[in-house]
């Protein structure tokens, strides 16, 4: 393909950049072959010209399509190169927050520097059993692949984890080991997996430290082999360590720390057990303060030490050894603080009594003098003499540090050795998985011997990695039969030869170390002379003669030669070692005693900046004391590395490359420069290069056809898809070298997939344009049609409007004309009326003027007359008024005086405080007072009015008198004239009186004003009081309303609170129920373990095959109490076999198993002992009540023997009757012998009817008396225990003579059999003599047996008993009279009884018996109560005798009942024979006189249906046969199809009913126990068969319902028929067994769910996610080397229809088995939860499934599931709600994800998803086509911000193992037990219907 076809306008490329390494750009112009530059535009809009190299003309790398960005596998990229890899990792890490990515066979892990919730147990379970390509990249996927290949290929595996410090190697290795420990479990009870994980905190404490790059950096390499047995369970582990950095013990750089263990000890120095270590803070010791960073943020060193000590304890290192270890570590710290001073220039000295050296010597148990001597001196040996040479201070300090490093290295090796001992096992190791946690390629500014060894090891690992990748590529090509062409890849063997070959760097270094005066400079010169000219990989720096450069596979590294020789020699002062070996401290001696032996193959490098030295076991014959350091560190490291490579080459490797994203430990921060360096160094890019050199893109034919179907025409599609793909590719890609056809795949060169994607995108784009064109045309035409329709409508409405306007104008014109006409008419009428009114007005005025003139004249005349009249009257009145005024004045003076007095009183009263107090006492009092005052005022007014009336009358009288006086005065007028002076004086006096009158009137007016004011005030006050009263009423109404509102609010609040409390209680109940069922599950698991142990002991001689083996438990808590004898035999046989096998087994395993078995047996025995103790306590409590009865047992036995003889005689009589009947039947040879009316027939019928009636009578009597006696017995038993329990015993003890017993019994018989008329009456004298007799005479009183025959209704006995009891309460003198009265009463009672008897005779037989017995019981009860009140002792004795004899009678009646039933069956058989004989004889023996038309049919004996009581009887020895045929060998399929549902449960219950009916507790117990154990046994045997588990779940529930329905509890009897109520259990309360059966049902339910889950599990992911239910919606994206399961349905692929068919099969099977509908709903709900949880979990862990099209597929699948629920009528079972998280996840994939409104909608929609799940789905969302858009990081952050306040669990995945708590609602059966028929196919013929 020409470059011009790819480098076109808008094509995107990668160009180098100094900051970002690679930068994206877009071509703005097509490239032509002769162009010297490319015209590019960067992402920020900048335009540049990219110059091409004129020599090579290499074009920049092309960028992959956006749909390929963010892929799980880097090899899935079409363009495989460095910028594509870097960009893909960056997008996944920054945008999607995904830290794992595949690169072919390599897992690239980027350290997020943040704790992520992706390592929980739920994630482990999700990855367990999955193929590596089916899930998103994860360390668990690599671990699962290794585990699976180990089990499948029977080959050991290795996981190689590499990377530089801080990249996360240790954490990745830790998670891999955690995965193995979780999924595999342990082969023993020793919890080896916990020990393997417990080694991590120990190794981190002693081998990890804080560096500038990592807070928990591993300063050593380790290879852990995890061993597995043949069942692939962990049995142990072994650890090998490499290159411990010893130099860190004595030196740390800035911002770094020593090993964690030192700081943990210093942080715990205040602990009591560490007091003698003399430790303090870390800043007080030289070895812990040099880095000046003693604390790690967020780490509690004291807590970490507790974790370390716990791990030590778990691995078997006891407390004393731990203290010893800490003692050695503290000694190292003290040794570092020993100060060495200069004595002179060539010697040094330690001050005497140095406290740190003293502490060191005390801790390690050496002498101070020896240690101080050899710290400052050195011994030199020659052939003849030995010299002691002093050391300068610097050399002495170095020697001290070397000793510290050596001690720490020994301690490290000792710990590793003991950890390995704790992890080792004696069980044979079948295979192992090795986890290599080793340092990556390192290059610093100054590189020394440590970096040289590390890079040498990485060269070896890289070579092995390259060869493995090359081998896999070759195998893939060979498998697909692709022509193999040699791929050129980098081979680093020359670099390895440069290091390790003969005359290589290591060889020359060892040689130089052997030289007496060897130095780093001379070694460097040898290197230059040897390799500078011969090896291109070796270079010499220009500016240095003490360094060299090696071209490694990753980069060039310059090494400084200084210190190489010293570190390679690893020298320690031997005299110091001898001093330590002579220590009194045992642990220190143990560290150094085997110094010559290799505890672990560990290379250890000493010296400044050095690492650990490798100890190799030398020959035993050599002198280890002098030659222990002869082997150099380089040689040791080379040998150990060779051993490691041999181990790795013998295993299948899996690679994990850890990448450090930045140097500042920032969370999710990506530095491209640092990432590229590490990608180059770890071999990822080399893998990409090897893949790109061949055919990196690989598609199956089906996937290619599905993806690129759009590029094919219809005629190109052939039935053979392989041929179709070939034809299409030949047309699309002309160059056939760009692809190859394999057997199952198509192989493409790099870039071809991108080209095909471009063609596909162009085709889809053209199709989209065509679709858009068509849709736009359709939209435009619709718009035109809408506009045209709108225009027509507007025109229509406009024209209508104009027409309406014209009509309106015409109407208005006509209206105006009419208005004008009427207006003119009105104007003329108005003018006429005005003229008419004016004329009338003028006439009116004139006429009025004339009338007024006449009126004036008349008026003047009248006024003159009036004036005269009034003047005359005035003169008369003047005289009268003068007289009246004088009188009134006098009255006013008097009244004024009284009024003033009253006013004064009122004012005083008004001013008083008491008045106001009275006014304010209360509103009602004030109102009443005011009302009273008003009434008083009204009364005063009435008085005044009356007084005024009297004054007026007196005034009238006076006026008359004054008139007379006026006449007299007129007579003497002349005299008045003469007395003018007298008149003037009178006038003055009159004036004076007038003034007084005016004053009086003013006072009166004032008083009236005051009264009016007072009245107004009172009215105002009353109104105010009324207002206040209204306000108070209003306030009262408001308060009432508030109270009502508050009460309503309180009611609502209480209702809500009650609802919440109810909901909380329901939640608590469900949680408690779930907790209880989980405990049952745990109990089942423990029983399963116990069974496995027994099986291992029993079958350990046979060779176990590889693979997991699991056994279901069949035991319950009741099995410890009741088991089969065969099981005991099996246990005994198993124990014998176990003993034989144990001799050949491993001792430790045998002891562990024996210990476990012993513990279980002890626990079982303790439970048995506890049960026995409880039973003994109960028996002791019962023994107190029964002690007195045992004394009379001898007499009772003889008494019972007499009764048995009587019963035997009766039975003999019945047999005799039966024999006579047979003889009469057999001996009769007459023709009509069997016909009705014959003597034999009559005898048989009479006896049969008599037997039936007697049987019914006995039955009814026994049932009624039994209930009455039980209640009386309980009350009597309670009273006897409170008072005198020995009454009955004393009474029975009196019957010591057997003759008396016989006589009494015979008398009873005679009394019972003799007729009432024959029995003589009891004389009074005899009765008196009996009453006066002593105690033995009481037996004579009872010798007739009256009390014993109470239930026979013998009235004479009852009367005698009453007379006897009453006679005891009377004196001798009154006995005769009282007895006569009693006799009279008895006669009356007898008459009444006869009346009752006559009434009862009219009743039906059943009602007659019931009524008579009820009456008799009532009468006896009343009499007993009377007796108890009169004489408690006698009544108690009589009652005991009655109860005892009635119980005996009941037993006798039951025996007779059984005998009569047998006889009745025989009679029925004979009656049937008689009927047959009669039918045969009447056929041919018709007499001549008989009519043929009326044949005489034989009368069939009536068969009473109620004879069958719904019970099944079986013998004790048939119980095993019953269990075997009904449970163990029953086939559910046949029972479910042919018989009624729940038949086994009904049969078992009917058998149980019979055991209850006969009161056989042992039979009940054994039947229930056998049933439970048999069900468990069949479930253990066929626990994986769904039909079996479902069948027994249904039957167990039905059996449980039957136990409830027929228990007799009222709560369970509501829906029973009367017949069913008669079938209730009568003797035993099986509530405890109901609980046991309920627990068994819960276990069966859980087993059923697991069985259904195992069936559905393989279908869910394929049917719900992978299969395309709607074909063509989603396209297949290119995958990488890790191929996923194809979504195209093959023949063996599960689809959604498979799931629906399986669900339907489940449902139909459960319905056939008769499972309760409510239980079916719970099962369906659980299944739908599993489907939703598994689907959602896989969706959250699969990036390729998170797309828009997949969301639509999921929603369609969910709708199909809902339709299935609707068809089955299960929409209300809660199953749909369990799918809500999956539905919301599918909706989340389809909604818009851009704006804030979209974010708000998502937050409100996804309420069933957690925040972590929502963010995960958004991060994983991947477009399948170019038309979709990715979710921006800003949008995801917006979602996180909005969901920040949610209170929810951070768990990412749903718990697929969660099982809803199951309930078994009571479901009574309407089936009558007596109607159930047992089919012969069940082989239960030994059962007898009762």
Structure description:
It is a single chain. The model is unreliable at 596-629, 1101-1151, 1228-1236, 1276-1351, 1478-1506 and 1684-1691 (pLDDT under 50). The strands form nine sheets. Strands 6-7-23-8-18-11-12 form a seven-stranded mixed beta sheet, with helices on both faces. The two termini are 95 Å apart. β1 (12-17) and β2 form a beta hairpin. With 1890 residues, it is of the alpha+beta class. The chain is 62% helix and 7% strand. The longest helix is centred in the middle third of the chain and has 160 residues, at 752-911.
Distance between the termini: 95 Å
Could you tell me the radius of gyration in angstroms? Answer: 60 Å
- Percent helix among the residues? 55-70%
Helix tally equals 58
Structural class: alpha+beta
The largest β sheet comes out as: 7 strands, mixed
Q: Give the strand tally.
A: 28
């Amino acid at each position: 393909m020409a470059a011009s076809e790819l480098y076109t306008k808008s094509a995107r490329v990668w160009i180098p950049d100094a900051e970002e390494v690679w930068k994206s750009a877009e071509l703005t112009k097509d490239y032509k072959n002769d162009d010297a530059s490319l015209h590019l535009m960067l992402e920020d809009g900048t335009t540049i010209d990219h110059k091409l190299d004129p020599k090579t003309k290499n074009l920049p790398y092309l960028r992959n399509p956006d749909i390929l960005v963010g892929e799980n596998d880097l090899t899935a990229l079409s363009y495989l190169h460095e910028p594509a890899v870097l960009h893909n990792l960056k997008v996944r890490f920054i945008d999607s927050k995904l830290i794992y990515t595949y690169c072919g066979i390599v897992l690239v892990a980027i350290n997020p520097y943040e704790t992520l919730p992706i390592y929980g147990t739920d994630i482990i379970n999700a990855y367990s059993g999955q193929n590596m390509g089916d899930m998103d990249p994860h360390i668990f996927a690599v671990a699962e692949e290794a585990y699976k290949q180990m089990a499948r290929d029977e080959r050991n595996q290795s996981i190689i984890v590499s990377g530089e410090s801080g990249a996360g190697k240790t954490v990745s290795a830790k998670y891999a080991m955690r995965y193995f420990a979780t999924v595999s479990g342990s082969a023993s009870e020793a919890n080896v997996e916990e020990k393997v994980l417990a080694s991590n905190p120990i190794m981190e404490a002693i081998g990890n430290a804080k560096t500038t790059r990592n807070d928990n950096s591993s300063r050593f390499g380790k290879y852990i082999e995890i061993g597995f047995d043949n069942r692939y369970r962990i049995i142990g582990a072994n650890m090998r360590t490499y290159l411990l950095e010893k130099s860190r013990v004595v030196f740390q750089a800035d911002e770094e720390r020593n090993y964690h263990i030192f700081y943990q000890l210093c942080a715990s120095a205040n602990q009591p057990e560490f007091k003698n270590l003399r430790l303090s803070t870390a800043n007080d010791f030289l070895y812990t303060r040099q880095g000046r960073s003693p604390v790690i943020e967020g780490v509690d060193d004291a807590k970490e030490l507790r974790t370390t000590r716990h791990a030590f304890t778990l691995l078997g290192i006891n407390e004393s050894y731990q203290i010893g270890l800490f003692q050695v570590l503290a000694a190292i710290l003290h040794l570092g603080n020993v100060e060495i001073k200069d004595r002179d220039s060539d010697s040094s000295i330690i001050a005497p009594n140095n406290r740190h050296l003293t502490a060191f010597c005390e801790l390690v148990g050496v002498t101070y003098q020896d240690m101080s001597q050899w710290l400052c001196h050195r011994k030199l040996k020659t052939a003849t003499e030995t010299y002691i040479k002093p050391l300068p201070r610097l050399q002495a300090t170095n020697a001290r540090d070397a000793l510290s490093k050596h001690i720490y290295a020994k301690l490290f090796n000792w710990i590793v050795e003991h950890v390995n001992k704790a992890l080792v096992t004696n069980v044979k190791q079948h295979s192992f998985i090795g986890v290599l946690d080793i340092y990556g390629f390192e290059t610093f500014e100054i590189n020394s011997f440590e970096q040289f060894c590390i890079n040498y090891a990485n060269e070896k690992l890289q070579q092995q990695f390259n060869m493995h990748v090359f081998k896999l590529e070759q195998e893939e090509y060979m498998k697909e039969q692709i022509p193999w062409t040699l791929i050129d890849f980098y081979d680093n063997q020359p670099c390895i030869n440069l290091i390790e070959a003969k005359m290589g760097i290591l060889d020359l270094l060892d040689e130089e170390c052997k030289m007496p005066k060897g130095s780093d400079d001379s070694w460097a010169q040898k290197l230059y002379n040897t390799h500078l000219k011969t090896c291109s990989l070796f270079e010499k720096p220009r500016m240095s003669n003490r360094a060299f450069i090696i071209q490694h596979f990753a980069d060039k590294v310059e090494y400084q030669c200084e210190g190489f020789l010293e570190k390679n020699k690893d020298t320690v002062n031997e005299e110091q070692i001898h001093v330590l070996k002579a220590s009194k401290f045992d642990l220190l001696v143990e560290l150094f005693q085997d110094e010559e032996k290799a505890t672990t193959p560990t290379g250890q490098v000493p010296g400044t900046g050095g690492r650990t030295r490798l100890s190799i076991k030398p020959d035993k014959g050599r002198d280890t004391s002098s030659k222990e350091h002869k082997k150099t560190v380089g040689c040791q490291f080379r040998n150990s590395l060779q051993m490691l490579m041999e181990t790795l080459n013998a295993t299948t490797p899996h690679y994990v490359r850890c990448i450090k994203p930045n140097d500042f430990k920032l969370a999710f921060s990506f530095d491209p420069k640092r990432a590229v360096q590490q990608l180059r160094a770890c071999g990822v890019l080399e893998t990409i290069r090897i893949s790109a050199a061949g055919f990196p893109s690989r598609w199956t034919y089906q996937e290619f056809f599905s993806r690129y179907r759009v590029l094919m025409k219809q005629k190109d599609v052939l039935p053979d898809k392989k041929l179709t793909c070939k034809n299409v590719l030949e047309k699309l890609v002309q160059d056939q070298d760009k692809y190859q056809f394999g057997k199952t795949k198509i192989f493409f060169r790099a870039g071809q997939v991108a080209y095909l994607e471009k063609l596909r995108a162009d085709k889809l784009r053209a199709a989209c344009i065509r679709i858009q064109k068509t849709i736009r045309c359709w939209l435009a035409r619709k718009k035109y049609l809408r506009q045209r329709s709108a225009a027509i409508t507007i025109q229509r409405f406009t024209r209508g409007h104009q027409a309406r306007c014209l009509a309106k104008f015409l109407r208005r014109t006509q209206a105006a004309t009419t208005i004008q006409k009427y207006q003119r008419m009105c104007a003329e009428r108005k003018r006429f009326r005005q003229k008419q009114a004016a004329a009338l007005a003028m006439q009116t005025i004139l006429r009025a003027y004339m009338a007024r003139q006449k009126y004036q004249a008349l008026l003047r005349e009248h006024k003159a007359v009036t004036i005269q009249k009034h003047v005359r009257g005035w003169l008369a009145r003047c005289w009268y008024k003068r007289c009246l005024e004088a009188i009134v004045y006098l009255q006013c003076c008097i009244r004024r005086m009284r009024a003033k007095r009253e006013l004064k009183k009122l004012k005083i009263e008004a001013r008083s405080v008491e008045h106001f107090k009275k006014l304010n006492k209360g509103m009602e009092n004030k109102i009443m007072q005011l009302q009273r005052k008003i009434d008083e005022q009204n009364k005063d007014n009435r008085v005044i009015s009356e007084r005024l009336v009297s004054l007026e009358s007196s005034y009238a009288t006076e006026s008359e008198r004054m008139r007379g006086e006026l006449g007299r005065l007129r007579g003497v007028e002349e005299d008045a004239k003469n007395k003018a002076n007298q008149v003037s004086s009178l006038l003055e006096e009159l004036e004076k009186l007038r003034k007084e009158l005016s004053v009086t009137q003013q006072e009166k007016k004032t008083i009236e004003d005051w009264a009016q004011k007072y009245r107004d005030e009172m009215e105002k006050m009353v109104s105010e009081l009324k207002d206040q009263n209204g306000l108070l009423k209003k306030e009262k109404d408001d308060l009432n309303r508030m109270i009502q509102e508050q009460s309503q609010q309180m009611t609502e609040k209480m209702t809500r609170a009650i609802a919440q409390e109810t909901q909380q209680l329901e939640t608590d109940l469900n949680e408690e129920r779930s907790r209880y069922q989980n405990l049952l599950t745990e109990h089942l698991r423990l029983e399963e373990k116990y069974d496995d142990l027994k099986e291992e002991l029993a079958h350990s001689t046979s060779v176990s095959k590889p693979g997991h083996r699991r056994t279901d438990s069949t035991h319950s808590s009741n099995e410890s109490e009741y088991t089969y004898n065969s099981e005991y035999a099996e246990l005994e046989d198993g124990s014998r076999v176990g003993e034989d096998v144990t001799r050949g087994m491993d001792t430790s395993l045998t002891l562990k198993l024996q210990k476990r078995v012993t513990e279980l047996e002890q626990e079982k025995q303790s439970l048995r002992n506890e049960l026995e103790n409880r039973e003994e306590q109960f028996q002791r409590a019962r023994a107190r009540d029964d002690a007195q009865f045992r004394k009379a047992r001898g007499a009772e036995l003889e008494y019972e023997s007499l009764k048995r003889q009587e019963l035997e005689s009766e039975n003999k009589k019945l047999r005799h009757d039966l024999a006579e009947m047979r003889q009469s039947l057999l001996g009769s040879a007459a023709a009509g012998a069997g016909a009705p009316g014959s003597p034999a027939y009559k005898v048989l019928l009479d006896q049969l009817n008599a037997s039936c009636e007697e049987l019914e009578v006995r039955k009814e009597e026994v049932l009624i008396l039994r209930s009455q006696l039980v209640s009386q017995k309980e009350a009597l038993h309670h009273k006897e225990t409170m008072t005198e329990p020995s009454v009955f015993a004393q009474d029975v003890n009196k019957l010591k003579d057997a003759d008396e017993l016989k006589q009494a019994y015979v008398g009873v018989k005679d009394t019972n059999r003799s007729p009432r008329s024959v029995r003589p009456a009891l004389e009074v004298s005899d009765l008196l003599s009996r009453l006066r007799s002593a105690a033995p005479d009481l037996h004579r009183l009872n010798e007739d047996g009256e009390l014993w025959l109470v239930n026979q209704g013998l009235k004479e006995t009852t009367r005698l008993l009453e007379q006897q009891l009453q006679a005891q309460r009377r004196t001798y003198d009154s006995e005769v009279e009282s007895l006569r009265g009693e006799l009279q009463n008895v006669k009356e009672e007898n008459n009444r009884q006869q009346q009752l008897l006559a009434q009862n005779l009219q009743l039906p037989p059943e009602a007659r018996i019931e009524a008579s017995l009820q009456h008799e019981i009532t009468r006896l009860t009343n009499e007993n109560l009377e007796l108890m009140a009169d004489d408690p002792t006698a009544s108690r004795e009589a009652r005991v005798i009655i109860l005892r004899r009635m119980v005996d009678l009941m037993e006798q009646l039951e025996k007779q009942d059984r005998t009569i039933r047998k006889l009745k069956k025989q009679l029925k058989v004979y009656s049937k024979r008689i009927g047959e004989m009669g039918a045969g004889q009447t056929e041919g023996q018709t007499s001549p006189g008989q009519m043929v038309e009326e044949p005489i049919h034989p009368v069939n004996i009536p068969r009473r249906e109620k004879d069958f009581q719904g019970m099944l009887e079986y013998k004790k020895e048939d119980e095993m046969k019953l269990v075997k045929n009904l449970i163990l060998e029953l086939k559910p399929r046949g029972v479910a199809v042919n018989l009624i549902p729940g038949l086994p449960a009904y049969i078992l219950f009917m058998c149980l009913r019979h055991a209850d009916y006969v009161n056989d507790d042992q039979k009940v117990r054994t039947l229930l126990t056998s049933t439970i154990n048999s069900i468990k046994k069949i479930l253990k045997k066929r626990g994986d068969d769904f039909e079996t588990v479902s069948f027994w779940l249904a039957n167990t529930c039905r059996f449980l319902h039957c136990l409830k329905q027929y228990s007799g509890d009222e709560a369970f009897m509501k829906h029973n028929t009367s017949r069913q109520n008669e079938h209730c259990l009568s003797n035993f309360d099986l509530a405890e067994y109901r609980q046991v059966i309920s627990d068994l049902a819960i276990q069966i339910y859980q087993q059923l769910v697991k069985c259904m889950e195992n069936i559905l599990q393989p279908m869910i992911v394929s049917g719900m996610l992978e299969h395309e239910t709607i074909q063509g919606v989603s396209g297949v994206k290119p995958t990488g080397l890790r191929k996923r399961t194809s979504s195209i349905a093959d023949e063996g692929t599960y689809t959604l229809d498979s799931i629906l068919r399986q669900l339907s099969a489940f449902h139909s099977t459960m319905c056939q088995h008769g499972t309760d509908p409510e239980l079916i709903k719970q099962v369906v709900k659980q299944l739908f939860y599993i489907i939703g949880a598994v689907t959602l979990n896989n969706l959250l862990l699969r990036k390729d499934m998170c797309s828009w099209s997949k969301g639509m597929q999921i929603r369609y699948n969910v709708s199909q599931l809902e339709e299935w629920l609707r068809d089955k009528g299960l929409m209300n079972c809660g199953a749909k709600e369990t799918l809500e998280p999956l539905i919301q996840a599918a909706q989340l994939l389809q909604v818009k994800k851009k704006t804030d409104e979209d974010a708000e909608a998502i937050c409100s929609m996804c309420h069933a998803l957690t925040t972590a799940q929502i963010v995960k789905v958004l991060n994983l969302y991947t477009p399948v086509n170019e038309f979709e858009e990715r979710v921006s990081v800003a949008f995801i952050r917006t979602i996180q911000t909005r969901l920040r306040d949610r209170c929810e669990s951070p768990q990412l995945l749903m718990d697929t193992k969660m099982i809803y708590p199951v309930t078994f609602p009571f479901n009574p059966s309407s089936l009558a037990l007596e109607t159930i028929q047992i089919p012969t196919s069940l082989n239960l013929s030994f059962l007898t219907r009762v």
